[in-house]
Amino acid sequence: MDYKEVTLLLNHEVEPFIAELLNALGANGVVIEDSAEVSKGRVDSYGEIYELNPADYPEEGIRVKCYFSLFDFNDKLLRDIEKSVYELRDVPITTFNMTTADVKDADWENEWKNHFHAFRASEMFTVVPSWEEYEAASEETVITLDPGMAFGTGDHATTSMCLKLVEKYVLPGHSVIDVGTGSGILSIAAHKLGASKVRAIDLDKVAVRVAEENFAINHCADEIETDTGNLLVGETERRDIILANILAHIVDLMIDDSYKLLNDNGVFITSGIIAEKEEMIVNHLKKAGFRILEITRESGWIAIAAIKEVA
């Protein structure tokens, strides 16, 4: 089957959300080429640092390639893509350009794998693609990942900041819920840190399926409960840790419920928040009764750890 390739040039702020947006519109595959990648040191399967070819990446922002069956493609789809991008809440759209091309099936099926390699995501965790062999050092804990159609390789600032906070605050025996689990990377990290109960939920059924596949790859499928769910609606079990790497306005919607569902001295870890929304989220957290433990910032994004402190 032949496909139509749609290429988007976008500003960096769109990256965490564009794959999910395009998948919802029927994309059969998504490749994201980030201009920032060329400045990062990468580790290959033999532990050697290698450099990426700048010619393979845009000069600035991100280049997104997505693929649609010719049977599904039409001009309305292009209008729907543009409309959906500009309707992203909390995300400024400063760059938008879209082009199309015809491609053969074999041209795109595995192309995105060329852009995802093993990398150190935090002091403890190294993320390794499922198709690569990797020999970990004694101080590394490997998370094996096949992100598929779900967001969350650990490479983006929002996910890597969350990973570092998870590494710091999740303790053996903790009960954890991961809201908007995506690829399941944060749930896997929590499990590997010794959390006794982990529940991973996402509104997107595709994300839940991808997460389940990644749990199986990491030999923890029987240890992590999955479900489709709308934030914390319907959740009744108290937790020691609540994770939410999602958009700021969605985080805002779940702050009060998070406070109610956390055990005393439980921690709410959240990201996906642009810097301009920091004050709004922090003020709401404090109003709900949280004390801010720390705020980390990277590439215009912030992550927050807040505690339900008992007087």
From TrEMBL:
InterPro entries, per the entry: Ribosomal_L11_MeTrfase_PrmA (IPR050078), Ribosomal_PrmA_MeTrfase (IPR004498), SAM-dependent_MTases_sf (IPR029063)
Top enzyme class: transferase
Residues in coiled coil: none
GO biological process: methylation
Domain of life: Bacteria
Residues involved in S-adenosyl-L-methionine binding: T159, G180, D202, N245
Name of the protein in its database record: Ribosomal protein L11 methyltransferase
Organism listed in the record: Macrococcus lamae
Gene that specifies this protein: prmA
